[in-house]
Amino acid sequence: MSIRNRVVTVTAVFALVSVLAAPATAALHHWALSGVTFDDGAGARGVFTYDDVTQTVVSWNISVDAGVSYLPFTYMPGDSGVVTTVDAAGTQILFSSAAAGLPLNERQLRLTATLPLSAGTSPNPLNLATPDGGSGGVECYNCGAPRLIVAGALVVSPPPLGELVQAVEFYHSGLDHYFLTADANEILVLDTGVLPGWARTGQAFSAFAPGSPNDVPIRPVCRFYGLPSAGLASHFYSADPAECLRVFDLFPSSWQVEAGNVFQVALPDTSTGACATGSQPVYRVFNNRTDVNHRYMTSLAIRAQMEAAGWVREGYGPEATIMCAVAPSP
């Protein structure tokens, strides 16, 4: 069962980290990417907040589509840093995964606005890249073999909203498979029996919706679909960009990437497995069978039941925490 993604959810108040959208002041403007397209047909979208006084980007959430050799990716404070350069050529904004100290090849997205970034310069066309990757817009790994931006502009946007979603668990007794989704349309399809055999388990956890303004260490969750041709028909989630990249690189014939940001959570401390105050641990187990299936849960009691049935824990620290969801309200 391959179910595509996109989350439509209700707005919620949340408190995992201080992530409210930047206030609307004369110095701060929110810029949305409009019609940004690469030469491989992929696109980019999202919003960043720019401080006109300091000439810096103070918040960002920019998603790029997959390409032939590109994993879909979301540039946000948990996964990247940003540098701005203002000169005669325009305002260049460079998002870089290396600035976040991630253990993967440096990934860069460069946008160059042709006009000053102020409310009066919207829409603001982007400089387009030259074939040699020169001044303009590109995305690249270590800036080798870049894909070039061939169209697009920046437009002043309302502040991005912080939203919460519920990641809801389903179970198919015929397959003995678990499935997790925060997509409202997918949940509706499964709840109404359009895809028969699936039923809610009663388990769920809260996360941030894609596009929500977040600070470090919140990260996007990638999603892969295990292809039936490889004997799988299952889904896999990770908040670790290095793990997402490994799956993409090592198993291209068995795991197909579906999205780079289905919801946003924090990673635990990779040594201790500890989650920050205001969040709750999520655990992942693997069925240890050829028809690979994973289950994600917040209950240690449920995990103990799964391990007794032969499932194997995966995660960080002594308790093998895999990610940190938003803690329930008291």
What series of H and E elements makes up the topology? EEEEEEEEEEEEHEEEEHEEEEHEE
- End-to-end gap: 36 Å
Global mean pLDDT: 87
What is the number of helical segments per DSSP (H or I, 4+ residues)? 3
Structural class: mainly beta
Percent helix range? under 10%
Task: Give the overall silhouette.
Answer: globular
Number of E-state strands: 22
Please give a handful of descriptors for the protein shown:
8% helix, ten-stranded antiparallel beta sheet, four-stranded antiparallel beta sheet, mainly beta, 22 strands
Give the helix/strand layout.
Layout: E1 28-38, E2 43-51, E3 56-64, E4 73-75, E5 81-87, E6 90-96, E7 107-113, E8 124-125, E9 138-141, E10 144-157, E11 164-172, E12 177-181, H1 184-191, E13 198-208, E14 218-220, E15 222-226, E16 234-238, H2 241-250, E17 255-259, E18 264-266, E19 279-286, E20 294-297, H3 300-308, E21 312-314, E22 321-326
Antiparallel strand pairs: 1-2, 1-10, 2-3, 3-4, 5-6, 6-7, 7-9, 8-10, 9-10, 11-12, 11-13, 14-18, 15-16, 15-17, 19-20, 19-21, 19-22
Word description of this protein:
Helix content is 8%, strand content 42%. The strands form 5 sheets. Strands 1, 2, 3, 4, 5, 6, 7, 8, 9 and 10 form a 10-stranded antiparallel β-sheet that branches. Strands 19, 20, 21 and 22 form a 4-stranded antiparallel β-sheet that branches. A 3-stranded antiparallel β-sheet has the order 12-11-13, covered by helices on one side. The chain has helices at residues 184-191, 241-250, 300-308; strands at 28-38, 43-51, 56-64, 73-75, 81-87, 90-96, 107-113, 124-125, 138-141, 144-157, 164-172, 177-181, 198-208, 218-220, 222-226, 234-238, 255-259, 264-266, 279-286, 294-297, 312-314, 321-326. 42% of the residues are buried. The protein has 330 residues and is mainly β. The chain is globular. The protein has 3 helices and 22 strands.
